[in-house]
Amino acid sequence: MQVTSSCHFALYKIYEKRGLGSKYKENPGIAQEANSLKARRALEKYLHYYERFENHNKSLKMEEVQREKIKTKIEDKVSRHEGTWIDWQYLHEAASLLTKCRYTLQYTYPFAYYMEGGAEKNLVGKARPHMAEARNTGHDIFSSSTNKPS
Fold it and tell me: Does 13 have pLDDT greater than 80?
Protein backbone atom coordinates (compact mmCIF):
# COMPACT_ATOMS: atom_id res chain seq x y z
CA MET A 1 0.00 0.00 0.00
CA GLN A 2 1.40 3.33 -1.04
CA VAL A 3 0.79 6.35 1.16
CA THR A 4 0.18 9.59 -0.69
CA SER A 5 0.76 13.12 0.51
CA SER A 6 -3.02 13.65 0.89
CA CYS A 7 -3.04 10.63 3.20
CA HIS A 8 -0.22 12.14 5.28
CA PHE A 9 -2.15 15.37 5.49
CA ALA A 10 -5.31 13.55 6.63
CA LEU A 11 -3.37 11.65 9.33
CA TYR A 12 -1.80 14.90 10.45
CA LYS A 13 -5.25 16.50 10.84
CA ILE A 14 -6.50 13.53 12.88
CA TYR A 15 -3.53 13.73 15.22
CA GLU A 16 -3.91 17.50 15.48
CA LYS A 17 -7.59 17.19 16.52
CA ARG A 18 -6.61 14.73 19.26
CA GLY A 19 -3.98 17.16 20.58
CA LEU A 20 -1.03 15.17 19.33
CA GLY A 21 -0.23 17.37 16.32
CA SER A 22 3.31 17.26 15.08
CA LYS A 23 4.84 17.63 18.53
CA TYR A 24 7.70 15.29 19.19
CA LYS A 25 7.80 14.00 22.72
CA GLU A 26 11.28 12.91 23.66
CA ASN A 27 11.77 10.05 26.02
CA PRO A 28 13.83 11.64 28.83
CA GLY A 29 15.46 8.33 29.78
CA ILE A 30 16.87 7.80 26.30
CA ALA A 31 18.04 11.42 26.06
CA GLN A 32 19.74 11.23 29.45
CA GLU A 33 21.47 7.98 28.52
CA ALA A 34 22.71 9.51 25.27
CA ASN A 35 24.02 12.58 27.12
CA SER A 36 25.66 10.36 29.71
CA LEU A 37 27.38 8.29 27.02
CA LYS A 38 28.52 11.44 25.24
CA ALA A 39 29.91 12.86 28.50
CA ARG A 40 31.71 9.58 29.27
CA ARG A 41 33.37 9.56 25.84
CA ALA A 42 34.42 13.19 26.27
CA LEU A 43 35.90 12.40 29.68
CA GLU A 44 37.75 9.35 28.35
CA LYS A 45 39.20 11.42 25.51
CA TYR A 46 40.30 14.13 27.93
CA LEU A 47 41.89 11.65 30.35
CA HIS A 48 43.69 9.88 27.50
CA TYR A 49 45.45 13.09 26.45
CA TYR A 50 45.88 14.49 29.96
CA GLU A 51 47.54 11.36 31.37
CA ARG A 52 50.10 11.30 28.59
CA PHE A 53 50.74 15.03 28.95
CA GLU A 54 51.22 14.63 32.70
CA ASN A 55 53.58 11.65 32.25
CA HIS A 56 55.81 13.80 30.07
CA ASN A 57 55.62 16.55 32.69
CA LYS A 58 56.87 14.13 35.37
CA SER A 59 59.65 12.99 33.05
CA LEU A 60 60.69 16.61 32.48
CA LYS A 61 61.06 17.06 36.23
CA MET A 62 63.28 13.98 36.41
CA GLU A 63 65.33 15.27 33.48
CA GLU A 64 65.90 18.52 35.37
CA VAL A 65 67.51 16.49 38.18
CA GLN A 66 69.59 14.63 35.60
CA ARG A 67 70.77 17.90 34.03
CA GLU A 68 71.90 19.09 37.45
CA LYS A 69 73.87 15.85 37.94
CA ILE A 70 75.49 16.36 34.54
CA LYS A 71 76.41 19.90 35.44
CA THR A 72 77.98 18.65 38.68
CA LYS A 73 79.83 15.91 36.78
CA ILE A 74 81.19 18.45 34.30
CA GLU A 75 82.34 20.76 37.11
CA ASP A 76 84.01 17.78 38.80
CA LYS A 77 85.89 16.82 35.63
CA VAL A 78 86.98 20.41 35.07
CA SER A 79 88.21 20.70 38.67
CA ARG A 80 90.23 17.47 38.22
CA HIS A 81 91.76 19.00 35.04
CA GLU A 82 90.25 16.36 32.77
CA GLY A 83 89.35 19.05 30.30
CA THR A 84 87.74 22.46 30.20
CA TRP A 85 84.09 23.39 30.45
CA ILE A 86 84.01 23.69 26.66
CA ASP A 87 85.37 20.15 26.31
CA TRP A 88 82.40 18.80 28.24
CA GLN A 89 79.78 21.25 26.98
CA TYR A 90 78.42 18.65 24.53
CA LEU A 91 76.93 16.72 27.47
CA HIS A 92 75.03 19.77 28.66
CA GLU A 93 73.84 20.55 25.12
CA ALA A 94 72.70 16.95 24.56
CA ALA A 95 70.70 16.99 27.81
CA SER A 96 69.09 20.28 26.82
CA LEU A 97 68.21 18.92 23.38
CA LEU A 98 66.61 15.83 24.90
CA THR A 99 64.56 18.08 27.20
CA LYS A 100 63.39 20.12 24.20
CA CYS A 101 62.36 16.90 22.46
CA ARG A 102 60.40 15.78 25.53
CA TYR A 103 58.74 19.19 25.76
CA THR A 104 57.72 19.01 22.10
CA LEU A 105 56.28 15.52 22.59
CA GLN A 106 54.43 16.68 25.69
CA TYR A 107 52.65 19.45 23.82
CA THR A 108 51.56 17.24 20.93
CA TYR A 109 48.85 15.91 23.27
CA PRO A 110 46.93 19.15 23.93
CA PHE A 111 47.46 20.05 20.27
CA ALA A 112 45.89 16.76 19.16
CA TYR A 113 43.11 17.02 21.76
CA TYR A 114 41.82 20.26 20.26
CA MET A 115 42.32 19.28 16.61
CA GLU A 116 39.36 18.31 14.53
CA GLY A 117 39.55 14.78 13.17
CA GLY A 118 41.05 14.35 9.75
CA ALA A 119 44.29 13.92 7.88
CA GLU A 120 46.26 16.40 9.98
CA LYS A 121 45.25 14.78 13.26
CA ASN A 122 46.11 11.34 11.84
CA LEU A 123 49.51 12.69 10.78
CA VAL A 124 50.21 13.95 14.32
CA GLY A 125 49.09 10.62 15.75
CA LYS A 126 51.30 8.65 13.38
CA ALA A 127 54.33 10.93 13.83
CA ARG A 128 54.24 10.94 17.64
CA PRO A 129 55.48 7.33 18.13
CA HIS A 130 58.37 7.98 15.72
CA MET A 131 59.27 11.16 17.60
CA ALA A 132 59.13 9.29 20.91
CA GLU A 133 61.27 6.46 19.57
CA ALA A 134 63.91 8.87 18.26
CA ARG A 135 63.92 10.75 21.56
CA ASN A 136 64.23 7.54 23.56
CA THR A 137 67.06 6.29 21.36
CA GLY A 138 68.88 9.57 21.89
CA HIS A 139 68.26 9.31 25.62
CA ASP A 140 69.63 5.74 25.72
CA ILE A 141 72.81 6.78 23.90
CA PHE A 142 73.18 9.80 26.14
CA SER A 143 72.57 7.81 29.33
CA SER A 144 75.08 5.14 28.37
CA SER A 145 77.75 7.79 27.79
CA THR A 146 77.03 9.74 31.00
CA ASN A 147 76.67 6.71 33.28
CA LYS A 148 80.17 5.44 32.60
CA PRO A 149 82.43 5.58 35.64
CA SER A 150 84.31 8.88 35.94
Answer: no
